[in-house]
Write a structure and sequence with these properties.
single chain, alpha/beta, 7-stranded beta/alpha barrel, 6-stranded parallel β-sheet
Length: about 850
């Protein structure tokens, strides 16, 4: 809302962030069982929060959808760069929703973006070295600019942890404002100045202390520094922010708006009521929180006495009239400043009797490792780079885009001299080592109860990757780094007796993640038995070039022999291997890998000899001799357990499928043979034998699943199985059936988007939707609803049903389809008849 019509504004900020969870050697997140039924926590929270905020529902009193909106267009937000990287790769539609919301916000708020940047991987800035702080700020700015197409105005500090030096560095790097907690403000004074005798200026106001978070949060403050730089600080409304996060304020959109408006003061000065919480409050921590936010934003947008705004727009219209100083080493989530990330301060005390004494030695171990690497990095780096630390700051451009042309530009800009291929690998390994020294300080490693938690194990794993790279780069100069690190970590005692201490976690958990190119080759060799790979393929962050591959079968046994070149996509490090995999069926797999020199005639001749002999022995079904042959040529070291976690599960599932199919047929036959007895027991209320109940449950749910998956859906069969379940008191497997039904409806809607108004395809989608309304459990048709709304809003909607005589039927059936998907019929009628507001947005994916 323009400044001339109101001086009262509201801004709602969401800090969207998850710690990086990627395996440091694979650059991908492996299965996290604690996030089930999702693959990992990023996927789960994306489904519950990041995606839903891109397509948030506004509903009526009958819980029917009246609008689907992009919350990112109207709120203020920041996303952690490492999280955005994951979203871009794994949830591209959600990622596009975020970018689109940011773009729309610029149009809504006079060219000012609602997106703030963030220090790169969420380390606690006051506890970092000056060099690391600069890298965090510069990487955060570069990441933001890469994604949104323009530099940021504001930057979010991890945990809002700040000191004066950090704020000054932000200002010197071009950041105009940041957001802090009210308790971080130490004192304030008016900015009005008077001339001194020498012609200078001095503030006329006296400093006013602001103890106990008593700062007025309704306007910005200027922080000024000795260097002459300055930036604005917005101190958010603490009580209302706590009510959002912890007191159930998101249970009602109306109450949310009412509480926000209570923050206005009774004067005519320009005022900003603003709150800041974890963005995950809106949908993950609070189910349907994104809907409360969408409703509140809509109410505020329609309010004639207050307007929505973002920080950049407010700052331009109403520059600070006061200045502020902060408490150094303060944050929003620790009553003791920043002690939560370096001492046993008492925050998040965990279970009774637990302590966080492990925090201090963990930080000391990491600091010692980081500081020991500085002279080694300069010794090697100055032989490769013009300026190794400037090269590190610019390495973010490679992290964001690893294509060869971009890497060439990086080398051209920073290399000390034209680098050889071997030197290029060393430069990339050096920068990767430095990247992981940043990642190992991610704040979540200290935040929770115990050193054995997954967040802390993650940062120790990053340290293990740092040590591995340092040993490859610095050779004897790196001797002792690991031992010194372990000595410190051994002082970090876990509260869980079986976990021991940090040194035990490092050796038993983190080193088990460590990979060599040989292990990647072994993974490829075993996976190739169960997968159809092309000659050029990619496994996580490794490129595989297949030199040769043959497979020989005899009965249930088979032998695969081949050669491949494995290359790291990150550093360019490359090596060739020959491999052999012997599979006797089921989980019985033995594999071997050996370094192979393609240019060595002796190596080629030896391998071909093995292939020839093995082929003959398999033909004769003489597998004992095959094993002896391979044992002479290889060390048989690998098995199914050598696979990376996700592929291990996938291959086990492949092995299990035939067994499960046999079991399913058997249970179905048992149920059909004894169905009448089961009916009788159900009708008389007599107890059912567990074995028979198990067979019935399996057969009915499997049959219902297949009926739902049929194309077109078999309505009569669905009803038949539902009747069986009801009459025989068979509990339905609602999670699986819901998933199948949701997926079927999504596919039908995607088909409709590509149908160009085909009435037959519309009929199929409508019949499916009608059928799904008969299911006796709640469905989550979120994606199907998005697609329906996208079709309605698309520019081609008016072109559907090309024959004018078909148009009434299309509108009628499309309207009914929307009603089946819980979209309000009166809204459908209005929107079919007229345009939809251009700033309402859809489609994202779970």
């Amino acid at each position: 809302m323009p400044a001339e019509t109101t001086k009262r504004f509201v801004c709602i900020h969401g800090h969207f962030y998850q710690p990086p969870r990627e395996n440091p050697w694979l650059e991908t997140i492996e299965t996290q069982d604690s996030a089930a039924p999702y693959h990992d926590w990023n996927e789960r929270i994306c489904s519950e929060c990041y995606a839903t905020n891109g397509a948030a529902r506004v509903v009526n009193n009958e819980n029917q959808i009246t609008r689907i909106v992009n919350n990112y267009a109207r709120m203020s937000f920041n996303f952690g760069p490492t999280l955005l990287s994951w979203l871009a790769e794994n949830a591209p539609r959600t990622y596009r929703m975020i970018l689109d919301g940011e773009r729309r916000s610029c149009g809504l708020f006079d060219g000012h973006s609602s997106a703030m940047a963030q220090v790169y991987n969420h380390l606690i800035m006051p506890l970092a070295s000056r060099r690391d702080r600069l890298t965090q700020i510069r990487w955060g700015i570069s990441d933001y600019t890469h994604r949104f197409g323009h530099p940021p105005e504001g930057m979010w500090l991890a945990e809002t942890a700040a000191d004066t030096e950090t704020l000054e560095l932000l200002a010197q790097e071009g950041i105009r404002f940041t957001v802090l907690a009210p308790r971080q403000c130490k004192r304030v004074r008016a900015l009005a100045t008077e001339k001194t005798a020498t012609g200078g200026a001095k503030p006329t106001g006296d400093w006013i202390s602001t103890p106990n978070a008593s700062v007025d949060p309704t306007h910005p403050y200027l922080a000024r520094f000795a260097s002459g730089a300055s930036l604005a600080i917005f101190f958010y409304d603490g009580p209302t922010s706590r009510a959002i996060a912890f007191e159930g304020l998101l249970n009602s959109g109306e109450n949310f708006v009412s509480r926000l408006k209570q923050g206005f003061l009774d004067n005519n000065e320009p005022q900003l009521v603003h709150v800041a919480t974890d963005g995950e409050s809106y949908g993950h921590h609070h189910k349907h929180g994104e809907m409360a936010l969408a409703y509140a934003l809509r109410l505020l947008e329609q309010d004639t006495n207050a307007g929505l705004i973002n920080y950049g727009s407010f700052l331009e219209q109403f520059p600070p009239k006061w200045e502020a100083e902060i408490y150094d080493n303060s944050s929003w989530s620790c009553d003791h400043g920043v002690e939560r990330w370096r001492s046993n301060c008492g925050c998040n005390g965990g279970k009774p009797g637990w302590n966080q004494l492990w925090r201090a030695p963990l930080r000391e171990a990491l600091d010692q490792l980081r500081d020991s690497l500085v002279p080694l990095t300069e010794k090697v780096g100055n032989l490769l780079f013009k300026d190794v630390w400037a090269a590190r700051d610019e390495y973010i451009n490679i992290i964001l885009d690893r294509n060869l042309e971009n890497v060439e530009r990086y080398f051209d800009a920073h290399q000390h001299h034209p680098l050889t291929d071997e030197e290029r690998i060393r430069t990339l390994e050096l920068m990767e080592m430095q990247r992981h020294t940043q990642l190992m300080y991610t704040s979540c490693g200290w935040f929770f109860d115990d050193i054995s938690g997954i967040e802390t194990v993650q940062i120790i794993a990053y340290a293990a990757r740092v040590i591995q790279l340092s040993q490859e780069l610095f050779l004897e100069d790196a001797a002792g780094l690991e031992l010194a690190f372990l000595d410190k970590l051994a002082q970090a005692k876990s509260n869980v007796p079986s976990a021991g201490d940090g040194a035990k976690i490092y050796t038993q958990q983190c080193l088990n993640m460590e990979l060599s190119l040989e292990q990647v080759a072994a993974h490829y060799a075993i996976s190739a038995v169960f997968s159809s790979f092309a000659d050029e393929t990619e496994i996580f962050c490794y490129q595989i070039h297949r030199i040769s591959y043959e497979i020989f079968n005899s009965g249930r046994g088979r032998l695969a022999l081949g050669r491949a070149r494995i290359t790291s996509s990150i550093t360019g490090n490359s090596e060739s291997f020959s491999f052999a995999v012997l599979h006797f069926g089921d989980q019985n797999i033995t594999a071997a890998v050996k370094a192979y020199q393609p240019d060595d005639p002796t190596a080629a001749e030896g391998f071909e000899k093995v292939v020839t002999q093995a082929r003959e022995q398999v033909r004769n079904a003489n597998f004992p001799e095959v094993i002896r042959l391979l044992d002479r040529y290889y060390d048989l070291d690998y098995s199914l357990t050598s696979l990376f976690r996700d592929d291990q599960r996938r291959i086990i599932q492949v092995i299990l499928n035939s067994t499960l199919a046999d079991i399913e047929v058997s249970l179905k036959n048992i149920y059909e043979d004894h169905a009448s007895l089961l009916h009788y027991l159900a009708q008389t209320g007599l107890p059912k034998p567990p074995a028979l109940a198990l067979a019935a449950g399996f057969a009915v749910n499997a049959g219902l699943r297949r009926a739902l998956e049929a194309d077109p859906i078999d309505l009569s069969l669905v009803r038949s199985f539902l009747n069986m379940a009801k009459s025989d008191e068979v509990p339905l497997d609602t999670p699986t059936l819901t998933y199948v039904a949701d997926l079927r409806m999504k596919r039908a809607m995607l088909e409709l988007t590509m149908s160009s108004g085909n009435l037959e395809i519309l009929d199929r989608a409508l019949n499916l939707a009608r059928t799904l309304t008969e299911l006796p459990f709640e469905l989550n048709l979120w994606q199907a609803q998005n697609i329906w709304y996208e079709i309605l809003r698309s520019s081609t909607y008016s072109l559907t049903a090309h024959d004018p005589e078909d148009r009434p039927r299309w509108d009628r059936d499309f309207r009914e389809l929307g009603c089946c998907l819980s979209i309000a019929c009166d809204i459908i009628t209005a929107e079919v008849a007229g345009p939809v507001p251009a700033d309402d947005l859809l489609i994202a994916e779970a």
